[in-house]
Amino acid sequence: MQIIPVILCGGVGSRLWPLSRELRPKPFIQLSDGQSLLQKAFLRSAALPHAAEILTVTNRDLFFQTEEEFRAVNASQLATSFILEPFGRNTAPAIAVAALHIERAYGKDAIMLVLPADHLITDQSAFAQAVIIAADCAIKGKLVTFGIKPDNPETAYGYIEAEDNKVLRFVEKPTLIEASEYVQSGRYLWNSGMFCFSAGTILQAMEKYCAHVLIATTDCFNISQQNQSKDFKPLLLDPASFQQVPDISIDYAVMEKSDQLFVVPCDIGWKDIGSWDALGNLTPPDVQGNRVKGKAVLQDTSNCYVHSEERMVGVVGAEDLIIIDTPDVVLVANRTHAQDIKHMYAQLKTQGHESYKFPRTVYRPWGSYTVLEEGVGYKIKHIEVKAGASLSLQMHQHRSEHWVVVSGTAKVVSGDNEFLLTANESTYIPIAYKHRLSNPTDKPIVIIEVQSGDYIGEDDIIRFNDYYS
């Protein structure tokens, strides 16, 4: 038996803003042990005894970050593959394209284990046992979901009503009274959003229950395969045909309609880290019910969660607050409004404010940059370029740039000139000059960049040549 874990790594970062952003969403959040939720998803998948490879479906803008996260923890060198979406289309298309890929690579009987990247599972042994049970059912043609035994009336989760292992119905997020009744009845499980089935079974089910989704996804998959670059290993989905794929979840498209659905009740230490309350609850409370991650001094304060990455935060005379301090954004919210933070995120996106999209440190395939300071008409960045890496040949229409080399040797293209800069040397890139920064050495280089101009947004860029497509 071959099991191919399929990690769905997406999201826009709205519910855990400002720690998560569109270009560094929730799966990349590091927990107290230094591992991200995405890395934990990879490690528990890699530890399964029959895992043949790990397939990840993610946004194309997140590919290089995802690859770096896996590389840091993939000590066993388990094979990895990637399908890259140009934009989100929910879980049904993501699972369909993964099934098409797996069927072509391994055959229709290969078992898919679908895992969201932003969940936390603390009991690996119980998880592996649940997967074995699910896989045995999947071999027999069942669509299998994992139901979590509830220990409290949680209103943020969907529920599954089940009789033995048969799914009777899915239930949307309930009221507190309804959730209490569900838990007391013993007939309901939390809907984990994890699934197990063979590639052939899920494709047959989609053909039966949502043929329009499967047809559009298959068209996109075939076009993408034809256009796939020999030099770029991941499958990059064609944007034009993917635009025609319906936006729908696998629950709505298939699971709520199927009569071949089997549920595995399990107690695996599962948590969906879907809000600041859920993330905060991973930190032990003090005697006043406060939870602190980072640096904070609290006086006459109770039932607060404080997260501070760098600065000291002082809180006096407060209760029931969420206080999140990041280098560029401070969030203060009443805990009863934790689910409303996504509306603030949406407002910032509508206004075009970059804080919804970019964290202070942005990871690129060539390295990273950190915004140190920003004001009217200027921005200062710390740039690190990996060994042998290069930025695109580019031009800016509204800003000039000054580069100062802090360490290493940089290769610079500026207009018609090409030259090397070493530590303590600098250069000036005028507006509308074609330029490129690259690292010709086997060690990282560090640059301080000062931008100045009438517009310094990240979208003021024209790329002429880029090694990373």
CATH class of the largest domain: Alpha Beta
Number of helices: 11
Rg, alpha carbons: 24 Å
Mean pLDDT: 93
Q: In the CATH scheme, what's the topology name of the largest domain?
A: Spore Coat Polysaccharide Biosynthesis Protein SpsA, Chain A
Characterise this structure.
By secondary structure, this protein is an alpha/beta fold. The chain folds into three domains: 3-271, Spore Coat Polysaccharide Biosynthesis Protein SpsA, Chain A (Alpha-Beta Complex), CATH 3.90.550.10; 276-344, no CATH class; 360-465, Jelly Rolls (Sandwich), CATH 2.60.120.10. The protein has eleven helices and 27 strands. It has helices spanning 37-46, 63-73, 91-106, 124-139, 176-185, 199-209, 211-227, 239-242, 250-255, 276-280, 341-351; strands spanning 3-9, 54-59, 80-85, 111-116, 119-121, 143-148, 159-163, 166-171, 188-198, 235-236, 261-266, 270-272, 291-299, 305-316, 321-325, 330-334, 361-364, 367-375, 378-385, 393-395, 399-407, 410-414, 417-421, 426-429, 435-438, 445-453, 462-465. Strands 1, 2, 3, 4, 6, 7, 8, 9, 10 and 11 form a ten-stranded mixed sheet that branches. A hairpin with a 2-residue loop joins β7 (159-163) and β8. α1 packs across α2 (63-73), α3 crosses α6 and α6 crosses α7 (211-227). It is globular, with a radius of gyration of 24 Å. The two termini are 37 Å apart. The model has no long low-confidence stretch (mean pLDDT 93).
